[in-house]
Amino acid sequence: MEPPDWEAMNFTVEPAAPGYPLCEEWKDGSEGSVFHLANIFLFFGFMGGSGFYGLLYLFTFLTLGFFCSTVWAWSDPCTTDSFLWNFALFGVCLGQVLHVSYRLRSVSFEKDFQELYLCMFKKLGVSLTHFGKIVACCDGDIHTIEPDHCFAIEGKTAIDKLSVLLSGRVRVTVNGEFLHYIYPFQFLDSPEWDSLRPSEEGIFQVTLRADNPCRYVAWRRKKLYLLFAKHRYIAKVFALVVRNDIAEKLYSLNDKAFDKAGRRYDLRLPSYCHMPGTELEKADVFLQVPVQGERTA
């Protein structure tokens, strides 16, 4: 038997040509400007905040960053996987930008409610979504009061809502004596609201009369308490703004309170009186409060 001719039998398999070029060594130079621009966009994007505008800021910069990364990966044949991942992330972020923009556009209000949000709720960090629930609770209705018409009459009007003045000025009196004014973006009935429990009923102890054409928004007690039961955050926000409004009304009363001797009467400390007021203050209409000694005499 003759030995096989190994030289004639060639079992060597030629390696197949790769479908893409092989990267055999590191590049000596730096990447192009598109690569650095992509990372700059990503850096600014991850500094975004919360809320609708924060999300819009975040995903807008991320979309630009991943788009630049996609362009950079496309120009380099050794980064096929990077191209696919960056392109996928670019599509996801672009979809988020469109989604947030649509939601931001859909959450829009009338001019009066926009001003109400800017003056009372935005500074507390209330989102447009939560404010939308607050507006829906009042059905988006704006009420009006003609000049010299009453919003509430002392001893007659029931306390069945919570209202905020949007425009005009309302005079508050008790037994025909002037107490203070209510100006736009102040509650009309915050003391009455805070004085009652959800299950209690009551009537106004003061008269509220419009000095000029007024517009206000009102929430019914039952609907508002149902909203509070569903959203505890909104309940805490209303508790804060209502009690802050009451404090401002007390301070306005304190500035108007003088005794017969012309000394300022402190409603928080009935036994203590400040120095006499100025002649300009005395020329205005003040609430006459008896001195502590006269009341005990």
SSE diagram, text form:
Blueprint: H1 33-45, H2 51-75, H3 80-106, H4 111-121, H5 128-137, E1 143-145, E2 150-152, E3 161-167, E4 170-174, E5 177-182, H6 190-195, E6 207-210, E7 214-220, H7 221-230, H8 232-256, E8 257-258, E9 263-265, E10 273-276, H9 279-282, E11 287-288, H10 292-296
Parallel strand pairs: 8-11
Antiparallel strand pairs: 1-7, 2-6, 3-7, 4-5, 4-6, 9-10
Description:
The protein has about 300 residues and is α+β, with helices and mostly antiparallel strands. It folds into three domains: about 35-105; about 110-255, Jelly Rolls, CATH 2.60.120.10; about 260-295, no CATH class. Helices cover about 45% and strands about 15% of the residues. It is built from ten helices and eleven strands. Strands 2-6-4-5 form a four-stranded antiparallel β-sheet. It has a three-stranded antiparallel β-sheet with strand order 1-7-3. A two-stranded parallel ribbon has the order 8-11. It is elongated, with a radius of gyration of 35 Å. Mean pLDDT is about 80; it is low at about 265-295.
